[in-house]
Amino acid sequence: MMMPALSNFRARLSNRLARHLFAAPLQLNSTQPMVSFTFDDIPVSAATIGAPMLEEFGGLGTFYVAGGLVNRRTDHGDCVDPDGIIRLSRVGHEIACHTFSHRRAIDLDAAAMATELAQNRRFLEGLDASIKLENFAYPFGLATVARKRQLTNSFRSARGILPGINNGTIDVQFLRSTPLIDKDIDRAGIDRIFDEAVATGGWLIFYTHDVADAPSPWGCTPGLLRHALEAAKRRNMPMVSVAEALRRAGG
Questions:
Q1: To bridge 68 with a disulfide, which of 87, 101, 113, 199 should be the other Cys (CB 3.0-4.6 Å)?
Q2: CATH code that applies to domain 28-249
Q3: Domain spans of the chain?
Q4: ∠ CA(122), CA(250), CA(17), 5° rounding?
């Protein structure tokens, strides 16, 4: 069995390489800045608080689901049940893909990754015929060069958790995203990154988990989410799903 320290070292090294070796370069065509709000694992609060807030501002989000977590208790609260996923999809939000068991890409060889993806696709697309998985997010944000290349055969994009604006030539198999997490960013930080997106004409992606008055270490308060939504509205930035953003960007 691999020692935890060695496993963590491998994860950091592989993820660092994956940041710099492009698997699927794309020159963004859109000159209008845009923002995508994404939610990982879909805690109940993301579906019942986060999604309606986004809809209130005329936006739609992307919800990355690990089928093995559905209707289960996690460190960031109870995860949504199948009916909740169907409701999100029918409203127009994008349902997207994690690994089924939420295992890290660094821990999977090609066969194991293929099995995880197939299982998640069967589960989610089996819930409702309207659900079509186009995009992926790396659990825990950790990627490898080999898994990035593998994912090009199955998904239009894969999202990490490396902060920054997506502009110019980007790697669609390692999209940058900024935490919308209370412990990691404040309102001034949100305003700064929105201003950077406007200045560069780029695509800003946020990620979070639960939305609660007392969020987990991986979630945000409704107040912080509302501040980000208001920041987008003030700047006339479209609030679109990852799938829609890629269509606008020519990907």
A1: 101
A2: 3.20.20.370
A3: 28-249
A4: 70
In one letter, which amino acid is 40?
A: D
Exposure on the CB side of residue 26, measured as CA atoms within 13 A: 23
Helix (H) or strand (E) holding 76, with range, is none
Residue 26's pLDDT is: 75
Cβ-proximal residues to 223 (8 Å cutoff; 6+ apart), any chain: none
Q: Give which of 20, 28, 23, 17 is closest to 169, Cα–Cα.
A: 28
**Exposure of 73 by Cβ count < 10 A (0-12 exposed, 13-18 middle, 19+ buried)?**
exposed
Structure tokens at 47: 């579906």
In the block, tokens 């479209």 appear at 238
Inter-CA distances, 189 with 97, 141, 184, Å: 28, 21, 9
Write the single-letter amino acid at 81: D
pLDDT at 5 over 60: no
Q: What kind and span of H or E run contains 57?
A: none
Nearest-angstrom CA–CA distance, 105 and 159: 12
Q: What is the pLDDT of residues 106-120, one digit of tens each?
A: 899 999 999 999 999
**DSSP annotation string for 181-227:** -TTT--HHHHHHHHHHHHHHT-EEEEEES-B-SS--TT-B-HHHHHH
pLDDT tens for residues 141-194? 989 888 999 999 999 999 999 999 999 888 999 999 999 999 999 999 999 999
- What's the pTM value of the predicted model, to 2 decimals? 0.92
Cα separation, 34 vs 251, in Å, equals: 14
Rounded distance, CA 149 to CA 170, Å?
15
